[in-house]
Design goal:
The chain is α/β, with parallel strands linked by helices. It folds into two domains: about 160 residues, 3-Layer(aba) Sandwich (Rossmann fold), CATH 3.40.50; about 150 residues, Lactate dehydrogenase/glycoside hydrolase, family 4, C-terminal (L-2-Hydroxyisocaproate Dehydrogenase, Chain A, domain 2, Alpha-Beta Complex). Strands 3-2-1-4-5-6 form a six-stranded parallel sheet, sandwiched between helices. It has a three-stranded antiparallel sheet with strand order 9-10-11. A two-stranded antiparallel ribbon has the order 7-8.
Length: about 325
């Protein structure tokens, strides 16, 4: 098992002594293609004392199945809008993979009308039942759904930019994998910062800042960047209409949840995430953030970037601003 896989299974929160769980975590959309493997990964976490699973169908069966796994985490299943409040009450972290998946020929933007409404409804529930929780948004299009969540929380008087994050971790995971494969390095030892957003050209891997340091030809830079930007479509097409990235997304979401819980428990942890930001002229932007006891403790800038990356930032800003505005407009209808 790789170093990173170990961290996302039995070695989550290694700073805790005696394996004592400390947090209640809700997964909204727990019976879906991302939600089920994500629930499985988080059931193994000694950081979590209660895993609250919510969906519109199927959750009691998923909860019963997971409850047989030999870990100390208690699993609860809730189904239907009437039980959303019970699922959310007392939660420290809420992860939202709910929504319809992409199909061949669809862009993340095509998902907007359905998924925007789902996120708005779920965030209204969060505002009512656990307004102080950290919220991880997976539901696409993340570039628009995170601004929707922010507007819902603002209207409810509970918006805390430090506690709302769009999960772009899959872009990092993919980048690490592709770079590791190209350079013959264990991907678990590679870390590639990915900035911008979570769709198409708004995804910008900073390949000049790869750890450990590696170099690329101009052709490799272009090809790698384009593959990372289009990796979601690669999976959608490979599944031939039967789904989108679910297993890799669950892995990435578990990594992000782990990092949030580490931060909440007092261990500063750095991840890339799509957050309320002043790094660029975009109101929301993905970059490295340091997670702490209050959520996002620091939003990091871009650092030294190459002319190729500077051009990438210029190109993505216009698209990202439009997608942010679309989310805000939807929330304020």
């Amino acid at each position: 098992m790789s170093k990173r896989a170990q961290r996302i299974s039995q070695h989550l929160c290694p700073h805790l002594t005696g394996g004592s769980p400390t947090f209640k975590v809700a997964i909204l959309g727990a019976a879906g293609g991302i939600g089920q493997p994500l629930s499985l990964l988080l059931k193994s976490s000694p950081c979590i004392h209660t895993l609250s699973l919510y969906d519109v169908v199927g959750t009691p069966g998923v909860a019963a199945d997971l409850s047989h796994i030999e870990s100390g985490t208690t699993v609860q299943g809730f189904v239907g809008q009437d039980q959303l409040g019970d699922a959310l009450t007392g939660c420290d972290l809420v992860v939202i993979p709910a929504g319809v998946p992409r199909k061949p020929g669809m862009t993340r933007d095509d998902l907007f009308n359905t998924n925007a409404g789902i996120v708005k409804t779920l965030c209204e529930g969060i505002a009512m039942h656990c307004p102080g929780a950290m919220v991880n948004i997976i539901c696409n299009p993340v570039n628009s759904t995170v601004p929707i969540a922010a507007e819902v929380f603002k209207k409810a008087g509970c918006y805390d930019p430090k506690r709302l994050l769009g999960v772009t971790t899959l872009d990092v995971v993919r980048s690490n994998t592709f770079v590791g494969g190209l350079k013959g390095i264990d991907p678990a030892l590679v870390e590639v910062p990915v900035v911008g957003g979570h769709a198409g050209i708004t995804i910008l891997p900073l390949l000049s800042q790869v750890s450990p340091p590696v170099t690329f030809t101009e052709e490799q830079l272009k090809a790698l960047t384009e593959r990372i930007q289009n990796a979601g479509t690669e999976v959608v097409e490979a599944k031939a209409g039967k789904g989108s990235a679910t297993l890799s997304m669950a892995f990435a979401a578990a990594r992000m949840a782990d990092s949030c819980l580490r931060g909440l428990s007092g261990v500063p942890t750095i991840e890339c995430a799509y957050v309320d930001s002043s790094v660029t002229e975009c109101a929301f932007f993905a970059s490295k953030v340091t997670l702490g006891p209050e959520g996002v403790a620091q939003v990091h800038g871009l650092g030294d970037i190459t002319p190729f990356e500077q051009e990438g930032v210029k190109k993505l800003v216009a698209d990202l601003k439009k997608q942010i505005a679309k989310g805000i407009d939807f929330a304020n209808k």
